[in-house]
Structure formats: C-alpha cells, structure tokens
Amino acid sequence: MSAGPGNSKTLLTLGLVCLASGVGLYFTYGRQSVSTPPSLSISPDVEAVASTSSDPILLPGGTYMIGSDTGPRDTRPARKLKLKSFRIDPTEVTNAMFAQFVQATGFQTDAQRKGYSLCFDKTSRHFVRQDGADWQHPDGPNSSILGKETFPVVHVSWYDANAYAKWAGKSLPTEFQWEAAARGQSLSGDFPWSLEPDREVHQLANLWQGEFPLRDQALDEYHGVAPVASFPATEDGIFDLAGNVAEWTSSYYAEDSYTLVGEVDPVGANRGEMRVTRGGSWLSTDQTGVSEATVWYRGKLTPETSTNFTGFRCVSNSDPSR
C-alpha cells in the first residue's frame, strides 16, 4: 500500500489512539488520582450470589499452556504449568449480580467516590474522563443500566472487583487460571475457539470490526458492550473469554512474569503498580497484527482505574463444600 497523505493521516490517528489508551490510561487516569482501597472485610453471601449466577465450570487439574513465543515480550516464553482444579464462573459478573452485592453491603465503587470514570467515547472516538460515569451510569449521569441487567458490570476498579469476589466467597482468577480456562487443555491455538469453516470471527465474539477508532462496522451487531453469553461458549461452557469486556485478574503485572514464574500453581509477581487484565474487549482489533482478544495477551491497568470496557468474573475452590 502506498504511503500517501490519506494513509499517513490514518496512521497518525491510530498512533494517537494507541498513545491515549496506553500511556494515557496509566499516567493520566491511574497514577494521578489517589484512591483509598475500599474495605475488603465484607461478609460473604454465597446464597445470594448463587441465585443470580449459573453453576461455575470445573476446570480439572493438569498441565496447561501459557504464553506465546510469537507474542509481545511479556508473553514469552510459552510454558507449560501444572494447576490444581478450580471452578470458574461461566459469565462475567452482570449488572444484576453486582446490584445484589451493593444492595446487601451498601458498597460504593471507586468511580462513585471519585465522581468520574474512563470511557471510550463512540462519538468523539477518544478515551475521555467522563464525569458522573459509574456502574449504574455507564455513559455518564444521563445514562442508566435499566434493561441492561444481563450486561457485564463495567466502571469497576480492581478494588471493587476484589470486594465483590470476597463477598461472594470467591476470588479473582490468577492470570494463569484465566488463561487455562480460555485455552482449555489444548496446547495450541490463539483464541478460545476453534474456527469452523462456516463461522466468522464476528459470530464468535464481541470485537471491533473496521478501522479503529474511525469506524466500527458492528458485524457482531453491537456498538459497545453486549449481554453476557450472547456468543458461543468454549467447549467447557465458558462465555465471553474473548472480547466484550476485559477482565481483572488477581495477578500483579510484571514484564518478566513468564520467565520467573514457578511451574506449579503460580500466582505471579508478589508486588507491582498494575494488575493484569485479560481477554480484550469490544474495542479489540487486530489491525496492529496482535489482537488483545488472544488467550495469551496480557493487558494491565492500575488497580484504582475503572473504564467502560473492563469487568471481571470469579473463581472458586474446586470443592464447593470447602
């Protein structure tokens, strides 16, 4: 393709967007605001959560693959790990599930206490600090989650997600548990599905189709977040492990995690300024040659950051009686 004026303008736009989504997220919306972690001493209410969520999926103990030798530096080297069995929720935590938590505890999220959250604005096509955006008002003070009870909750920080998980008697997955759930026990593949000849990617996940950030073709029928389980599950019955919303994990981010991590039930680095997110979101595109929706891609955000493209799901012990 020739590098004419039009192409140069497009490349410049994409470069600015990458800068906003990378450096901007960390320095402007992460480090600048001082956020006090909410109390995590909330009593678990497993019975309440059970009434709003499907049965967790058992992932058997065994050998799983992590990383990619052809991916970014922080995903190398690809390695085999041994994990104990665990259960993972089949969907991301929904607005209805989070509402039950808030009603039971009176919990206020980081975004509610700060008075703003981070949005990718579909009109301006930029990442913006949106005053009045929170989990109940995903697009700002004049928006609502009414009728969106089955959508994944967004505008939740890592602290918010961790507080919910503790209340539910569960935890956030380590990034290695998350990747094991996305891959299954397959030792190959880049996505949580095997692409069938008669199925296109937009039929399998809520991702960005078109030239980011200029135009979303919405071949998947969604300009933004979709209700959970709108797309096919993995072979294990887990939904939305690629796209829709990025998902918080319990793991600290470190670039060399895959070099240093142990081989049996690793949790990752023991400290860091950011936490790992996984799975990409409705904003994910492969225009740069690497899609955030791959099973091995490692996102990262400061733990007080909340956005309209980040949510979470929970894991629990493989023995539900414990």
From TrEMBL:
SUPFAM superfamilies: C-type lectin-like. Residues 55-315 form the Sulfatase-modifying factor enzyme-like domain. Pfam families: FGE-sulfatase. InterPro entries: CTDL_fold, Sulfatase_Mod_Factor_Kinase, SUMF_dom, SUMF_sf. This is Sulfatase-modifying factor enzyme-like domain-containing protein. One of its GO terms (molecular function) is formylglycine-generating oxidase activity.
